[in-house]
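Checked the freezer inventory, then went back to the computational side. Two predictions to log before the end of the day. The first one is the construct we discussed on Monday; recording sequence and tokens without edits.
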Amino acid sequence: SGPASAYGVIGKTEEAYFKMINDQGGINGRKINCISYDDAYSPPKTVEQTRKLIESDEVLLIFNALGTPTQTAVQKYHNAKKVPQLFLATGASKWNDPKDFPWTMGFQPSYRVEARIFGKYILKAKPDAKVVIFYANDDFGKDYLVGLKEVLDKSSVKIVAEESYETTEPSIDSHIVKLKDTGADVFVNISTPKFAAQAIKKIAELGWKPMHVMTDVSISIGAVMKPAGLDASEGVLSAGYLKDASDPQWKNDEGMKKFMAFAEKYLPGANLSDANLVYGYAAAQTMVQVLKQAGDNLTRENVMKQAASLKDFAPDTLIPGIRINTSATDFAPVEQLKMM
């Protein structure tokens, strides 16, 4: 629940995936017991729920917990307790730090990597662009800002304004009006689904037509484009690494067929155009792979060792050619993206 409630479906998808695995006999004869609590995207609540999972539920590990500010609040605790904080649902670059935080690992491409890809794309498409950046005033937004500036600061492209918002704001319309008045022709949108939809809608209402580049965390037809209006969302650019279940180009794709069969049986009536479903599926499939590799040695140490030994693993819902590779010095599972 809370300001990032659009992501709640990720956890439901993962629970459903583990149920499917259990129905098939589990992993190496063991069933997965998945316990999930709601932290409402509030760091103090995250601390409380994480302690409960580790100290009273005595879980083996915590998997795909969501949010940069929320997971930052428990990173030191996880590492002091030596409990895997695994495949976090946040693209902050700080999760790839095996030297200082050997019990923490991210999952999706880092925001900084994606921001650099955006920067290079803008440079190529509009070398004399006037760029405005709209971003969340937290670690998530600031990470993108760093990546963009690494590419654009010493280039022909001019960043004419940066405007941040707080996740507690009910509406971000005034920020968009302010950014339009700069006369910029490129709008970089670094916001979570609710605010991304508001921005797309307001830009259309104002009749402003900049090149619109948006973070992949909000590139969901179901959670963002439909609420914003499909006409208003036309032409929005992003970088992605997941197949879109509502895109007919994947209709005969083997991996997508498996996903569709799973969704039909275990998530009946789910909104397949919501990218969070294919994301949750990919993360859960990767978690299962790690547990398979761990065999009968289900210690927390061995779980981290196996998570750091993934070789060319290709979950069903990742774009062909994108593979997961990790090592003892590389805690960034997905490091490739495609502009789309």
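The second is the one RB wanted added to the comparison set:
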Amino acid sequence: MINKKFLLAGRPVGRPISDDDFEYQEEEVGDIQEGEVLLENLVIEFQPAQKGWMENISNYVAPIEIGDVMRGSGIARVIESKSDKFKKGDIVTGQTCWQSHPILNKEEIELIEDESMATLYLGALGGTGLTAYFGVTKISKPKPGDTVVITGAAGGVGSIAGQIFKISGCKVIGIAGGKEKCKILLEEFGFDSAIDYKSEDVNESLKELCPEGINVLYDNVGGRILNDCLAHIAMNARVAICGIISRHKTDNSNFGPENYANLIFKRAIMQGFIVIDFMSEADVARKKLKQWIQEGKINCKEDIQEGFENIPNTLKRLFDGKNFGKQLLKIAD
């Protein structure tokens, strides 16, 4: 049996990701040891944080070294098991990485009991949904009637966060790139308004849509759009910093807010967070998210590409703004 894999070969600091940043290899699958399972990767997920891991600038997780298999989570089928926790045919989730047949320790994977919701464990019921949930409940702390603005609103985290804010009784405005994404925000995710930053003046749109100011800003983008939003925050606003996807084409030192003085004038709070800070509460959060999904209160949109060879290009889709919802890639049936 052959294990196909992509290794990290370059660090895309201050530039977009390129094909040369990855090296494709094939190898014979080795024997598994006691407590291990051999998996067939079925679906893998993509997130903007992966570029930070490639650049080796994020210190909240272990670095990916040149020559390592590229990190990422996936849904997989157990092919062979030397563990009493898993049997052949089980569907599991874990850090399966960019490879076709990973061998993992039994403690590194989790059984998915409801296989009909399997891919949701890479999105709404996985790190994406948990990031949205904790960013809303722990950092943003919405109150009914709050005006909320979400940047990167059509992505996996932004779209789920917006729907949780709606459940909380807020007026939700999403900022996204392109008319099609803005249409999805309104028609599929139930946002109250949408701003197309590619064709609209963000400042003018915020002035019109937020006459009383922004009570909660949930930022996934950073850069110029964050600057524009900070100019419109209300008194005692809460600003949740979830991501900085705008920096993918710039040097690490060449980005950041300019209107941060408004945090002083408006007595606002800006706070960054990472989902791992709240994982002790993940089971409770996942139960709540699952309930909302089953009740039809959260629509989980997935953008599923296909083909192992398309893994690098699928990651690039995030930074080119091509994804609609959670970005996934199907490797096997």
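For RB: The chain has two domains: 2-123+300-330, 127-276. Residues 2-123+300-330 form a domain with the Quinone Oxidoreductase; Chain A, domain 1 fold (CATH 3.90.180.10). Let me know if you want it refolded.
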